[in-house]
Amino acid sequence: MNVRFTLNGKDVESETRDNRPLLDLLRVDLGVTSVKKGCEYGECGACTVLLDEVPVTSCLVLAPQVEGKTVTTIDGLVDDPLMEKLRQAFLEDGAIQCGFCTPGMLLTAYALLKENPNPTELEVKKAIEGNICRCTGYVLIIKAILDAAERVLAE
Ligand code: FES
Ligand code: FES
């Protein structure tokens, strides 16, 4: 079967199977390696993408489910001002170590700040509860998301 969707602002069409995970469609078939493959059962959040602007774990979405929809990875937000603020805050606050969780974490944080530009610490914690980081201990990630929110509000 063929699946057609919008990936990072571009229309794409790819031959695939009914049961192919979106994660493999993106990474293997379309070469979008910023989407990370971790647990493959919806527990780690490394494979997070935005599906019609909502964060989803792409290992649990099947290729046919994105037909006609919009998929966004960090590659599609290179010029986005909010994502730029998040990237800067992650860098300056030291919220990145190995970086494996970072694309998924950034996309989850991006979706949170789009919906709620002034989150509490608890709301940040709840938003990222599906994104596991094995390195940082989360404190600096939470700080970076709150700092990015502050920068948005200060504009
Ligand atoms: S690889 Fe999808 S949640 Fe871990
Ligand atoms: S920085 Fe290594 S998993 Fe988060």
Task: Explain this structure.
The structure is a single chain. The protein has 5 helices and 5 strands. It has 155 residues and is α+β, with helices and mostly antiparallel strands. It has 2 domains: 2-73, Ubiquitin-like (UB roll) (Roll); 79-154, [2Fe-2S]-binding domain (DNA polymerase, domain 1), CATH 1.10.150. A 5-stranded mixed sheet has the order 2-1-5-3-4, sandwiched between helices. Helix 2 crosses helix 3 (102-115) and helix 2 (81-93) crosses helix 5. The longest helix has 16 residues, at 139-154. The termini are far apart. The structure holds FE2/S2 (inorganic) cluster (FES) (2 copies). One FE2/S2 (inorganic) cluster is lined by residues 37-40, 42-47, 57, 59.
Could you give a quick summary of the protein structure above?
With about 160 residues, the protein is of the alpha+beta class. Helix content is about 35%, strand content about 15%.
Mean pLDDT: 97
Please, what is the oligomeric state? single chain
Main β-sheet: number of strands, strand sense, barrel status?
Answer: 5 strands, mixed
Helical stretch count?
Answer: 5
Strand order of the largest sheet: 2-1-5-3-4
Shape from CA axes? globular
CATH superfamily of the largest domain: [2Fe-2S]-binding domain
Helix content: 25-40%
Report the structural category.
alpha+beta
Tags for this model:
single chain, 155 residues, alpha+beta, Ubiquitin-like (UB roll), DNA polymerase, domain 1, 2 domains, five-stranded mixed beta sheet, 37% helix, 15% strand, binds FE2/S2 (inorganic) cluster
